[in-house]
């Protein structure tokens, strides 16, 4: 395919050289490839032109020969099949068929007859040589039937498998819209812990890494040895196998649920542009939507007149040359839908507002829907004529099929949009400000069909979300983009543009602009920024498991000691059948029942019940348990690490308060502000101004009265209110937009900062609406009168920076609505500025109320902005402008020079207009939830990627920082000696709140890791801002390692996944735009306030109930005496149901647990299952075991069935009584379990004939009574 960019018209359309009525054509244009060097494509000098021939003669000669295309209408339908086949063989290496070359241009009526390279778009006078056809840019290309890279869709699956594997450590070349020569990883999300191959090995290793399970495995294997065999092998193997099946089944179910939810995220549909070869893709995709640019759409089909149609050849050629556009489109574009997991590197995505970006992409084009509609309205009616070069609609390859629906938003807007789009990154880095992203001018100004000629050079996958360096190249053909050949700088056919972070949108960000964004995938799946910042899923084990494992070791030591004592009592004597160490081993096997394997069964089933309760709690709607092995840890949390954006806050700003020096307005008082604004901007035109009404300026608005009879004080206040409202309506970077919602047009705003949007919305609510904004002007409209009230010309704008903490704008006011653009001598020139009080205090004029009022708002948790203004004379502004321009052109020290000029001429003695207070709306019931958790003894840390000021305000407004609590701020720390000073200060003030940024945190973690964490864990509150996802996870791990306490992390964004997975308990909140955190978490909830019930209520119940199950299971009973069915019955039908019913027990009421959160502190100390309580239960069990066995032998004969019957009956009944005594709150299921088990036992006595004897009732009643006697 000839590259359109290679065409250079030899002379302008109005050149006298082209005035010949015969439309002369350069001979060299017929065969330009005679010179294979770069100069072959250079425009020829008009004064040294080659001989020309008549274009009409050439065209009509072709028509007479019958070698015309079908697009010639009635004249060209007798195409010779032989020449058709010959031209098909000699087509270019990009696979274009000459028959469809006009279709590739979208059916434009201005399409030229011949390519400057003879690429095969029209009839040829002679057949060119193969070498001449294929020699291009100094290298040989093969025809499509011999080339391996000619057509994207000609590759089969075998070719796909032969692709070279991607090397993550090297940079990559990505051909836009084409298949890549290197295989990249799939774009799928996976939070699964296991694969089909790793499930059994990993789960079995995890299970048998616990001494508890390994002990029973060794006991079961010992029964294979004849000398150690005591009972049936199945008696020992079956319980262990049952426990493993239960545990592995739970793990498998949890992992399958993760995979199912991952599949939901991976199945999210996205619109992808498919670039087919011209004349190939359209035939097979008629039902798909065809995406065409305005470059193509101008040539829509029209009726062909039957008369002489050659009179407009001159006009067509002039239009083509005047366009300077490419003669033939490089591709045929259609829209298809793809699942997120099916996206590949190189795919071009079509994204709209609210779409989550599924992979790391480079922004190629931003298409404004409004611009598209405006352009279509102004398009002139299309004439009825059609060029000879327009093919009939019968050829679907031309993109004109009736079944293919054109996409008007894409093409009409290209060239009308400035290539800007906004994205939200709160799911990636936690920052609330929107980020401006730009399309490279190289791709923004390119027709959509030509995007396939682009190639992106990107670096290796990296986790740095704020850095990117790459290159965008525009190559002559699509095949050049697919190949890995590089083009030198001297090759004018290849153009390149740099790419930076401003041209990217990483995975899990959200498109915030109304414009349509076209972006190409460059990193997918595990190579995206968010995936590289996320640690892999790991299996989590609860603290209770470790505690029971430790207690099991103690029980084993006790049984070993008991076995040695019994053997020692016989003097370690040997017999013919046994030696002394064999006897010890047999005793160990006999006493193995002291460590009951049923404990694992009860605990695992209990965990399932706890998970069931959590998921069906009406107080926590939407709760999901994804890791059912750690519910007890919910009751042991001592540190809570929380994200801010989307977790504690809604990321929705609202203007709450404004202070104008003497009066403060908030809530209902805003109605008075609206009254002042309505009166201040109500300008009545005079008779000679009816057609050109006056506009408000700072001078006119201050002179306007607020009503007849108003006092001087009210007039002054009204004037101040109008001035500050006007300043807020002008000093910003907000752009008004219109979007359709439910069939209605909704006005909205977009900007990088949600604070500014909140302020502009507030000015609209009080009567002054931002109706229009571009780079040169701002128009404000009175909402009451519905007409323009203020119009300004933007002279200079100084955007907000994190270092400057302020933004300013210089504007010139229009005095009348229809006035021409004023020069500097006409209209008032004002400088407006707003910023943080810390920097604005020294800029505004001296006053006595600013510090006090900003402090009051800060205590309320409001984000304060100080607003000021200054009037500039024409001379002052001209002097400033000259110095500013001079400083901006400096090579070195440019930023400092520019800031010095602004400070000198503008930023001093500003008139203080007022102070605004903006609130970041909190999630529902955040304040009481944080207070309750703090009273429960949980230390709360807030880790966010947002700014320091934002974190401070949210910490105060959410009551995370107590009223009057000192906030120690550590920001931009770079010296190690200063870090040590901060640590020493915090040691001396342990009741303060630490506010630290990510840079300083990184310094502490690098050089003073232990010292910092030892001080920080003792503070009541820590707020860390500007934290990367890796830093969040590192903080969680450090707290775990240093304190050995349970840490819970909660978040809602993709940037919180690493922190959630690093925590002992990870809780994810289902966010508005993303589910990454909830999918990777152990527990998923919908609101932060649900966390209190999850911890204080469900965590308490889970831990308390499991502790009781562990106590009941400790039993020093001689179960080795009961063989066969007695032993199986005791472990199953006679005790299982009553013991398991303890999972329904409640030691306190839910309301009481919420009323007294201090009860939670007992759980964190682990008193319910401590070494003290454990040894108490061991002693009780030994006492009762000795009493049962001793009295059974005294009251009956030793080794007689009667003794077994008495002891076994007492054992079962006593177990039921112990369960009943341990119950705090009775449930009907408990009653049924205990009574039902007793009836089952009584009913089974006849089936155990000879073993249980009713005649011994008085004996087991007597022994049972003594057993229950325990002080």
TrEMBL record:
<dbReference type="InterPro" id="IPR036412">
    <property type="entry name" value="HAD-like_sf"/>
</dbReference>
<dbReference type="InterPro" id="IPR023298">
    <property type="entry name" value="ATPase_P-typ_TM_dom_sf"/>
</dbReference>
<feature type="binding site">
    <location>
        <position position="756"/>
    </location>
    <ligand>
        <name>ATP</name>
    </ligand>
</feature>
<keyword id="KW-0472">Membrane</keyword>
<feature type="binding site">
    <location>
        <position position="643"/>
    </location>
    <ligand>
        <name>ATP</name>
    </ligand>
</feature>
<feature type="region of interest" description="Disordered">
    <location>
        <begin position="372"/>
        <end position="421"/>
    </location>
</feature>
<feature type="binding site">
    <location>
        <position position="1056"/>
    </location>
    <ligand>
        <name>ATP</name>
    </ligand>
</feature>
<protein>
    <recommendedName>
        <fullName>Phospholipid-transporting ATPase</fullName>
        <ecNumber>7.6.2.1</ecNumber>
    </recommendedName>
</protein>
<feature type="binding site">
    <location>
        <position position="944"/>
    </location>
    <ligand>
        <name>ATP</name>
    </ligand>
</feature>
<feature type="compositionally biased region" description="Low complexity">
    <location>
        <begin position="693"/>
        <end position="711"/>
    </location>
</feature>
<feature type="binding site">
    <location>
        <position position="800"/>
    </location>
    <ligand>
        <name>ATP</name>
    </ligand>
</feature>
<feature type="compositionally biased region" description="Basic residues">
    <location>
        <begin position="291"/>
        <end position="301"/>
    </location>
</feature>
<keyword id="KW-1133">Transmembrane helix</keyword>
<feature type="domain" description="P-type ATPase C-terminal">
    <location>
        <begin position="1116"/>
        <end position="1251"/>
    </location>
</feature>
<dbReference type="InterPro" id="IPR023299">
    <property type="entry name" value="ATPase_P-typ_cyto_dom_N"/>
</dbReference>
<feature type="compositionally biased region" description="Polar residues">
    <location>
        <begin position="33"/>
        <end position="44"/>
    </location>
</feature>
<dbReference type="GO" id="GO:0140326">
    <property type="term" value="F:ATPase-coupled intramembrane lipid transporter activity"/>
</dbReference>
<dbReference type="InterPro" id="IPR032630">
    <property type="entry name" value="P_typ_ATPase_c"/>
</dbReference>
<dbReference type="GO" id="GO:0006890">
    <property type="term" value="P:retrograde vesicle-mediated transport, Golgi to endoplasmic reticulum"/>
</dbReference>
<keyword id="KW-0813">Transport</keyword>
<dbReference type="Pfam" id="PF16209">
    <property type="entry name" value="PhoLip_ATPase_N"/>
</dbReference>
<dbReference type="InterPro" id="IPR008250">
    <property type="entry name" value="ATPase_P-typ_transduc_dom_A_sf"/>
</dbReference>
<dbReference type="InterPro" id="IPR023214">
    <property type="entry name" value="HAD_sf"/>
</dbReference>
<feature type="binding site">
    <location>
        <position position="946"/>
    </location>
    <ligand>
        <name>ATP</name>
    </ligand>
</feature>
<feature type="region of interest" description="Disordered">
    <location>
        <begin position="291"/>
        <end position="326"/>
    </location>
</feature>
<feature type="compositionally biased region" description="Low complexity">
    <location>
        <begin position="409"/>
        <end position="420"/>
    </location>
</feature>
<dbReference type="GO" id="GO:0045332">
    <property type="term" value="P:phospholipid translocation"/>
</dbReference>
<dbReference type="GO" id="GO:0005524">
    <property type="term" value="F:ATP binding"/>
</dbReference>
<keyword id="KW-0547">Nucleotide-binding</keyword>
<dbReference type="GO" id="GO:0006897">
    <property type="term" value="P:endocytosis"/>
</dbReference>
<dbReference type="GO" id="GO:0016887">
    <property type="term" value="F:ATP hydrolysis activity"/>
</dbReference>
<feature type="binding site">
    <location>
        <position position="643"/>
    </location>
    <ligand>
        <name>Mg(2+)</name>
    </ligand>
</feature>
<feature type="binding site">
    <location>
        <position position="645"/>
    </location>
    <ligand>
        <name>Mg(2+)</name>
    </ligand>
</feature>
<dbReference type="InterPro" id="IPR032631">
    <property type="entry name" value="P-type_ATPase_N"/>
</dbReference>
<feature type="binding site">
    <location>
        <position position="1026"/>
    </location>
    <ligand>
        <name>ATP</name>
    </ligand>
</feature>
<keyword id="KW-1278">Translocase</keyword>
<feature type="binding site">
    <location>
        <position position="644"/>
    </location>
    <ligand>
        <name>ATP</name>
    </ligand>
</feature>
<feature type="compositionally biased region" description="Acidic residues">
    <location>
        <begin position="157"/>
        <end position="168"/>
    </location>
</feature>
<dbReference type="GO" id="GO:0000287">
    <property type="term" value="F:magnesium ion binding"/>
</dbReference>
<feature type="binding site">
    <location>
        <position position="863"/>
    </location>
    <ligand>
        <name>ATP</name>
    </ligand>
</feature>
<keyword id="KW-0067">ATP-binding</keyword>
<feature type="compositionally biased region" description="Acidic residues">
    <location>
        <begin position="15"/>
        <end position="32"/>
    </location>
</feature>
